[in-house]
Amino acid sequence: MRFECEIYELLRPFHLKGKNIGLFDLIEAVALVTEEPGRIHAVQKEVYMVIAAERRCSWMAIESSIRRALEQAWKHNRRYMDELTGYALDSCPTAAEFVYICAATIIKKHMGTMK
């Protein structure tokens, strides 16, 4: 995947630990959606199940690990999450919403460099 390092840098301000498998699942989920944005419309089948097949676990385990990483991100740096979305969030986004927020940020950055 082309975007892994860029996604890791995007997530760095959240202070997620490398020992947290959710960080790696989140990076892979964001990369899949960044590469093919339409996957966000079938996130369970086209993102979580793809990662689960690689890790030989259930898609629910992938969603859960991403959700736990997201909860840590929300706890550590809500202000940065608001910055990524472009508005103040009232509550922590869902795992799928956060994957989309991160993928959209990367896509926008690349569209800006294509001009």
From TrEMBL:
GO BP, one annotated term: regulation of sporulation resulting in formation of a cellular spore
GO cellular component: cytoplasm
Coiled-coil stretches: none
Keywords: Initiation factor, Protein biosynthesis
Protein's UniProt keywords contain Protein biosynthesis: yes
GO MF annotation terms: calcium ion binding; DNA binding; DNA-binding transcription factor activity; translation initiation factor activity
Membrane-crossing segments per the record: none
Protein name in the entry: Sporulation initiation factor Spo0A C-terminal domain-containing protein
Lineage: Bacteria, Bacillati, Bacillota, Clostridia, Eubacteriales
Taxonomic superkingdom: Bacteria
Aminoacyl-tRNA synthetase as UniProt keyword: no
Species this protein is from: Candidatus Faecalibacterium faecigallinarum
